[in-house]
Write a structure and sequence with these properties.
The complex is a heterodimer of chains A (112) and B (117). Chain A is built from no helices and eleven strands. Chain A has strands at 4-7, 10-13, 19-25, 38-43, 50-54, 58-59, 67-72, 75-80, 89-95, 102-103, 107-111. Chain A starts with a strand and ends with a strand. The chains are: A mainly beta (112), B mainly beta (117).
């Protein structure tokens, strides 16, 4: 199975400051269809996961532009340009390139 | 409204069975592959199973293969997960999710399965 390793697992943040989460894959996520099926999800307490980013860097409709995704191959990053209070939660990367699709362990973002 | 609604979660003894349902609305259900994903306390998120648009292609995580069966009824806009020989480690919240070609773009609210004696 593809292993996704996120870091850090806990991220204390300050309002208005940037934040960054890394996701490293045990193998390339480039699919034979030419796409890289790497997603980022946000899960707020008591809620289902919500997709923020698909295909490495495509922001979903309604997702604030302070969220951005980048990377290729095996190394990916989710960045929040200026953290807001509503960004508290757990963030997961997920690969849909090879079955079984797998998730990272999650990064808990909380206010300092 | 575009949504997925799971149901059927319950408390069941080890070795028991349970059938989960996921009802879709607000979109053309028959055009989408669908998945079951579970969230196990302390173990994160795990993709459990998927089913193709016509139900002919299915696949399972190794941890549930041979015990779980996914199916769908496009006339009822519903997918199912039949879970047999349940184990304590199957405890968790089970979500259905819509497959957007390698990406989950829509999730249900989840249904809780507890396996305990």
């Amino acid at each position: 199975d593809v292993v996704l390793t996120q870091s850090p697992l806990s991220l204390p943040v300050t309002l208005g400051q940037p934040a960054s989460i890394s996701c490293r894959s045990s193998q390339s996520l480039l699919h034979s269809d030419g796409d890289t099926h790497l997603n980022w999800f946000q899960q707020r307490p008591g809620q289902s996961p919500r997709r923020l980013i698909s295909r490495v860097s495509n922001r979903d409709s309604g997702v604030p532009d302070r969220f951005s995704g980048s990377g290729s191959g095996t190394d990916f990053t989710l960045k929040i340009s200026r953290v807001e209070a509503e960004d508290v939660g757990v963030y997961y990367c997920m690969q849909g390139t090879q079955w079984p699709w797998t998730f990272g362990q999650g990064t808990k973002v909380e206010m300092k | 409204e575009v949504q997925l609604v799971e149901s059927g979660g319950d408390l069941v003894q080890p070795g028991g069975s349970l059938r989960l349902s996921c009802a879709a609305s607000g979109f053309t259900f028959r055009n989408y592959w669908m998945h079951w994903v579970r969230q196990v306390p302390g173990k994160g998120l795990e993709c459990v199973s998927y089913i193709s648009v016509d139900g002919r292609t299915t696949n399972y995580a190794g941890s549930v293969k041979g015990r779980f069966t996914v199916s769908r009824d496009n006339a009822k806009n519903t997918i199912y997960l039949q879970m047999n020989s349940l184990r304590v480690e199957d405890t968790g919240v089970y979500y259905c999710a819509r497959d957007d070609h390698g990406h989950y773009d829509l999730w249900g609210q989840g249904t809780l399965v507890t396996v305990s004696s």
